[in-house]
Amino acid sequence: MSQKSVKLLDALGGIPDRYLEESREDRPRRRFRAWGAVAACLVAVIALGVAVRGGWLPFAGGGGAGGHGSGEGFQAFNRYAGPVFPLTLEEENIAISARREVTLDFQSWEQSQAVQVTDRYTLRNDSQDPQTLEVLYPFAGTLAQAGQWPDLTLDGTPLESGLRKGEIPGTTSSLDSLLSGEAYQAMLEDPEYRILSLDTMPEAEHVPVTVYELTDLWGPEQEDGSVADPVLQVTVRYDPAVTEVWCFGFDQARTDPESGCQVLCISLNRAKQNPETGAYLLVKGEDVRSMDLQGRTETGEDGEQVEAGAEVNRREADLDEALNEIAEVYRQETYGDALSTPEEKALFYGRFLARWEESGETALEDALSDNAAMMLYRTAEITVPPESSVTLTATLEKDWSGSRTMTDTVGYEVATRMGSNLQWEQQQAVLEDRGQITIAQENFGFDLKKGIRTVPMEEELLRLDVRG
Amino acid sequence: MEDSHIVDLYWARDDRASAATQEKYGTQCQRLAENLLDSPEDGEECVNEALYRLWSTIPPQRPESLWAYLQRTVRNLAIDRWRRRQARKRGEGLAALSLELEECCPAALTAPSAEREAEAREITDCLSRWLGGLNREDRILFLRRYWYGDRLEDLAARRGVSANRLAQKMYRLRGSLRKALEKEGIVL
């Protein structure tokens, strides 16, 4: 071990308690969906008298914008996970009125500092006709956390839902620069803001690509201690005017787009652990001029040549097929069940193209593990029978927001009307603190000492800052 | 027993403080020390030393999180112990000699200089910012590996992914950290 890495190990010792607490137990979240089992006909569920009458408090106001933010008296966030947004409809429907109850449950907060949110809506149809609605449940999500995106249920039964994406065309779709609820509101109210469908990679259909798959990598035996971390270096040369080269499964990629040269490396020690796992090169446009494989003792200029190689299989395919194949490889080997729907795959491809155009990133998995938050919507079609109501519930895990100046405190926000066109009757919040937290500051109206855990939500944006 | 109560015991110089800490967190500490030192015996010694260190430093310290304070202490002692072991392995070289001489140096000489402390803080700040920019899964993964010393195979099994894919993920995370350090002009 070098002095450099020891310095890093030492430095790690000083990271904030928050990160230590968060990683105290290693319990990765996995989510299991039951898409296949859910028939589309569920949308025609007969509504039962599900509205919870007790405890509701009158709510002033309809679906308009405006109101107050939570900014006054609170520390500004410098890491903002976005608020819990209210449900909205594809098209405003005056026959439908809504009541909402948001439960913030801190049961497993100690492990992850994420709050479990149950966002329950009672949608009432006061008309004589059934109302079919396209509901949209907004959330700020990243591709890397696709397994934790919200789930929707209707009257307790999982809903088959789709995915859409919100953005202002021509701007970066990442939400990372938005550090307050007000900034989100400004984006949603921008006249240019659009909620886009995510079709099945239209730009990739019928686009021919050449796929190179590298398998069965071999190199110096590990017993030979003289080569600690050998790599297989793959150098491809191409005409950048007519060819683009994208990669997957390599540990390092360096591109010189002007000369048309890409140097990629795979750690042979890593590859030896799983020889059946391959690496891919996707060549769009004319095929590459050359591809050289060379073993090196290490990455970079200092590496010396060693004996190493791989099986290289070349085939032709359509780009969307190749991307689907790669997404499937990724899905099977990484967290949860991300990328299991065409929309998620389309989102992945869109994110990859954005990264590629912005910064020339050629590694497909970088888009898959992308941390940039996007404005996304779970969508579903439901029908509310005449003079009846249904209960639609979104469950999600809301990440914490924080500030450098509040090191032991994290915050969560709930928006009541932001971006929503529903006609609201009432909204209320329920706090399930589970003895896990103390409230540092808030504007919901909770008071744990007095046992006030259910409150009406009247402000536009409500914030709860807590500590353990 | 609540952590705050245990801290109160330390402040009251009550012998039960160490026993309560040992009872509540001993197993976790032993696991951490063993992960880092790869030796149950060294791990046990390290935990005992950490408990003594807590007794010596609380008061005046009043840690907000006793658990985090203890874990940090165990980890720092494990790294110190590992350094000594490495130096001993190098035999009679300068490393071993300087280690022996360190024992007779006044505290002022062995204490980190203001410059070194500032440098360490700078690296820690950069690391913290980089960690803050990761998604939670990646952050936990990185810390479980490099703070807690969990085995890659165990991390992979808990995530239901192949060790190979996780190794690639770690490789990329390390690359991302390297870029972040370089971007802030930090030379190790």
Question: What is the topological layout?
Answer:
The complex is a heterodimer of chains A (468) and B (188).
Chain A: H1 3-12, H2 17-22, E1 88-89, E2 96-105, H3 109-112, E3 115-125, E4 131-141, E5 151-154, E6 157-158, E7 162-167, H4 181-189, E8 194-197, E9 208-218, E10 231-237, E11 243-248, E12 252-256, E13 261-267, H5 268-273, E14 279-285, E15 290-296, E16 305-306, E17 309-318, H6 319-333, H7 342-359, H8 364-368, E18 374-384, E19 388-398, E20 410-415, E21 423-432, E22 438-442, E23 454-456, E24 461-467
Chain B: H1 3-11, H2 16-37, H3 40-57, H4 66-89, H5 94-102, H6 107-110, H7 114-133, H8 136-146, H9 152-159, H10 163-183
Task: Describe this entry's structure for a reader.
The complex is a heterodimer of chains A (468) and B (188). With 468 residues, chain A is of the alpha+beta class. Chain A has 2 domains: 45-201 and 375-467, Immunoglobulin-like; 207-338 and 351-369, no CATH class. Chain A has 8 helices and 24 strands. Chain A has helices spanning 3-12, 17-22, 109-112, 181-189, 268-273, 319-333, 342-359, 364-368; strands at 88-89, 96-105, 115-125, 131-141, 151-154, 157-158, 162-167, 194-197, 208-218, 231-237, 243-248, 252-256, 261-267, 279-285, 290-296, 305-306, 309-318, 374-384, 388-398, 410-415, 423-432, 438-442, 454-456, 461-467. In chain A, strands 6-5-19-3-2-21-23 form a 7-stranded mixed sheet, with no helix packed on it. In chain A, strand 12 and strand 13 form a beta hairpin. Chain B has 188 residues and is an all-alpha fold. Chain B has 2 domains: 3-106, Rna Polymerase Sigma Factor, Chain: A, CATH 1.10.1740; 112-183, Winged helix-like DNA-binding domain superfamily/Winged helix DNA-binding domain (Arc Repressor Mutant, subunit A), CATH 1.10.10.10. Chain B has 10 helices and no strands. Chain B has helices spanning 3-11, 16-37, 40-57, 66-89, 94-102, 107-110, 114-133, 136-146, 152-159, 163-183. Chain B is globular, with a radius of gyration of 19 Å. Chain B starts with a helix and ends in a 5-residue tail after the last helix. The mean pLDDT of chain B is 82. Chains A and B meet through helix 1, helix 2 and helix 5 of A and helix 4, helix 7, helix 8, helix 9 and helix 10 of B.
